[in-house]
Write a structure and sequence with these properties.
Helix content: under 10%
Order of helices and strands: HEEEEEEEEEEEEEEEEEEEEEEEEEE
Keywords: Signal
CATH superfamily of the largest domain: Bulb-type lectin domain
Protein name: Bulb-type lectin domain-containing protein
CATH architecture of the largest domain: Orthogonal Prism
Number of helices: 1
Strand content: 35-45%
Shape: globular
Distance between the termini: 27 Å
Number of strands: 26
């Protein structure tokens, strides 16, 4: 997963990456709207641009054409759609889903490219559901937390943060650390909720340094609960592991 995302962010960052891109007229991708290859949505201030690239990945560019975020979907012609049930999904030309934000269950949700460079999905009632920095409630199977990204509980009381020194740390609202992985002194490390069921901390060199040892449970996901529990559940919601 990390290698795919790294490839997504390694695309050309010059102005030629934007050549021929068609901008939408606002800063949102509303429910039911589609971004085809070379179509884009820009922030109101014009400094940030989300482009569905011909190479297959959805990429957010900032000032100086710097890639800030990219979906792990390079290598195949694809399109992005803000589905009416609330998911942002990238499909290939055979209409097979390649990646999604796991935000279904919120009809009318929309994606916004903000003036501060954040990429956010809001519900129809403007409730925060997902951003390029954060997940709400859970880290889905196949998704990754890079440095500075986190999963927060739905009530906003707890945050599981991937820190720059390499630890994955659970904080409460008072910013008190409640739990941590023993993975410090590894700058650039990241956490991956692998498709086979393991949560793994990798070093910046892609070496596994810590795991929950929950492999063999395809589709498992990590949850940060309103009570402050960090739990890995199977795809049928059976608990497999919890932070001690």
């Amino acid at each position: 997963m990390s290698a795919i995302l790294a490839a997504a962010l390694a695309l050309p960052l010059s102005a030629t990456a934007h050549a021929g891109a068609i901008d939408r007229t606002d800063d949102k991708l509303s429910a039911g709207e589609v971004l085809k290859p070379n179509e884009s949505v820009k922030s109101e201030n014009g400094q940030y641009r989300l482009i569905q690239q011909a190479q297959g990945n959805l990429v957010l560019y900032g000032p100086g054409n710097t890639a800030l975020w990219g979906s792990p979907t390079s290598g195949a012609t694809a399109y992005a759609t803000m589905q009416r049930e609330g998911n942002l999904v990238i499909y290939n030309t055979s209409n097979q889903p390649l990646w999604g934000t796991n935000t279904a269950g919120h009809p009318g949700a929309y994606l916004k490219v903000q003036n501060d460079g954040n990429l956010v999905i809001y519900s129809a009632s403007n409730e925060f559901l997902w951003s390029r920095h954060a997940y709400v409630g859970s880290l889905p199977s196949g998704h990754t937390l890079k440095t500075g990204q986190w999963v927060q509980s739905k009530n906003g009381e707890y945050k599981l943060l991937m820190q720059k020194e390499g630890n994955l740390v659970l904080y409460n609202r008072a910013n008190k650390a409640l739990w941590t992985t023993p993975t410090a002194d590894r700058p650039g490390a990241y956490a991956a909720m692998q498709k086979e069921g393991n949560l793994v901390i990798y070093s910046a060199q892609n070496a596994g340094v810590w795991t929950t040892k929950t492999a063999g449970n395809a589709g498992a996901y990590l949850a940060v609960q309103n009570q402050g529990n960090v739990v890995i559940y199977s795809k049928d919601n059976k608990p497999l592991w919890s932070a001690k």
